[in-house]
Design a protein that fits this description.
Two copies of one chain form a homodimer.
Chain A (H helix, E strand, L loop, with lengths): L1 H9 L8 H12 L5 H12 L4 H25 L4 E2 L2 E2 L1 H4 L2 H19 L7 H25 L7 H26 L4 H28 L2 H4 L5 H4 L5 H9 L2 H12 L5 H14 L2 H21 L9 H12 L3
Antiparallel strand pairs in A: 1-2
Helix pairs in contact in A: 2-6, 3-4, 3-8, 4-6, 4-8, 7-8, 8-9, 9-15, 13-14, 15-16
Chain lengths: 318, 318
């Protein structure tokens, strides 16, 4: 799937005029990544008897849209690198990243216009609603940086919008192209939402309790920047008044080392059994994913790849 | 038309969560403007016997899209004000303007999804192609700032993409919704391209030779920032070697006053008969607009408003 998607991405030509607009798009798309979202489109289409070729354009649209969000998010976060290469706004400049990002989003719609016209009334509203939700998720994520009263509900709503809905939409788009019934397409969407949330919870968990080598990035980043993760929000909710003060003071303390900060917070997390709570939540969403999958009845091919994917996401240590 | 459009814009609700994302959109849309593009959609629909109500959603989509481009352009140009109010990125910040702009572009597609589904195969590709062209136009415009070899062809291509195609698309969308034939819709598109280019030429002319009071902004702004306008490009082409050097030296001279700069360049323009050349070009595009209009045969209502609009644009002094 991964190779097929990369091959298809290469059929899109970005060495066109004005090159200042299109080359950064090619750069952003060639930088790799796991191509999870377009893979989901293809898998969903095949589940209902469609072919990869039929789902290709929806898959490319989703991948181009996803990379558009990364381009603009990287400006907003002032990120230096992405996938070990300079971000577009660092390699070029912010104006280039804004305008090339805009063009990418429109290109995503153009790719979607290559899907069969009779499916558009299902495809376009789904894609548009999802795209707006992803913007909303990004806004909530930015709000969280300064909002001191983020609840667990707020957190789940944010990760659903920022991460999960695009996985759900990728699957539902593939299902629609593959000829699924409205009901089955929705079940696959629900599966996507559940694995998306589980995926984000796992990411929160690994950022504090993962193995540095296999996680691929430094452990404790979320703790150091005081990010409102599942772990921190739950810890602040469950903590005694003294522990809550200790958490706040530790995060705000400029005189202790980063290592000390991370260790202190992790010790509190462990004392409050937050890691167990997080594992339970992941397992809960994993089960919801399998239940949604179970409800799909009118499929032409085996569901096993979806079960395997859910398991893989649960076990991932990267 | 203007009031109708403002009323319809008010039916869009932006006081929704997350407010940080949607309020800036409401702010950008309520700041007025001439509403030329949505007016064109409605006029075009009525020409072919459709109603304002039928064309409403396409009109709103065009206006929301246009204001999205202004939002992002203002970041790129670091503009302080727009229509006598702070720009979104100055009132809030660049991140807000980026993300709210993104949401606006998606909202434009959402509005377009309220048009009759059986017209989507005409409406969506037109809108998407136009949106990409507008991005390309903005890119060329930015390139011109540092490109010393901008030809007249480059200039016309840029203003066609940056300004004219959206007017053409507005008209064509209205015509499609109004039930025009493909041919007539295309004639109206061509009319829009021609008045769009004439409009931009007039703007270039007035920026140097307009009346400060009726033009509404300071005369000579383009000259002072060395903008590659129809006037400057033609002057550089027609000038003797000595005059060309005088133009370059005047624009680069930091020791003379702004007034002196403007007067020197205007004197060269006059000597080279550039104002006459510009008036001829405007008149040429005005005639092309009327010729395109003339080819429309299967209309239900009078073409007079389109003739009046072309004349108004030609005579405008604002």
């Amino acid at each position: 799937m991964h190779n097929y998607i990369n091959q298809q991405l290469e059929t899109l030509h970005w060495n066109i005029a004005p090159r200042e607009l299109y080359l950064p798009i090619g750069y952003a798309l060639e930088s790799g990544g796991k191509r999870i979202r377009p893979t989901l489109v293809l898998m969903a289409c095949e589940l209902f008897g469609g072919t990869k070729a039929e789902a290709k354009n929806a898959a490319l649209a989703i991948e181009v849209f996803h990379n558009f969000t990364l381009l603009h998010d990287d400006i907003m976060d002032n990120a230096e690198t992405r996938r070990n290469r300079l971000t577009v706004h660092k390699k070029w400049n912010a104006n280039t990243a804004i305008l090339s990002g805009d063009a990418m989003m429109i290109k995503a719609y153009e790719l979607l216009e290559n899907t069969p016209t009779h499916l558009w009334s299902k495809i376009f509203p789904l894609f548009t609603r999802t795209a707006l939700e992803v913007c909303e998720g990004q806004q909530y994520d930015m709000n969280f940086e300064t909002d001191e009263n983020v609840t667990l509900d707020d957190y789940f709503n944010m990760i659903r919008l920022k991460t999960a809905v695009l996985l759900g939409a990728a699957l539902k788009l593939g299902a629609i192209v593959g000829g699924a019934s409205e009901k089955d397409a929705q079940h696959l969407y629900d599966y996507g939402i559940a694995i998306g949330i589980a995926f984000q919870l796992k990411d929160d968990y690994l950022d504090s309790f993962g193995d540095e080598k296999s996680f691929g990035k430094r452990i404790g980043g979320d703790i150091l920047c005081g990010k409102k993760t599942f772990l921190l929000i739950n810890a602040l909710t469950k903590a005694t008044k003294d522990d809550r003060i200790l958490i706040h003071n530790t995060l705000a303390n400029c005189e202790i080392s980063e290592e000390q900060k991370i260790e202190t917070i992790k010790a509190i997390y462990k004392k409050l059994e937050i890691p167990r709570l997080c594992e339970e939540a992941i397992s809960n969403y994993y089960n919801r994913a399998l239940q949604a999958l179970d409800k799909i009845t009118d499929h032409k091919n085996d569901k096993k790849p979806f079960i395997a994917l859910a398991e893989q996401l649960m076990q991932r240590v990267d």
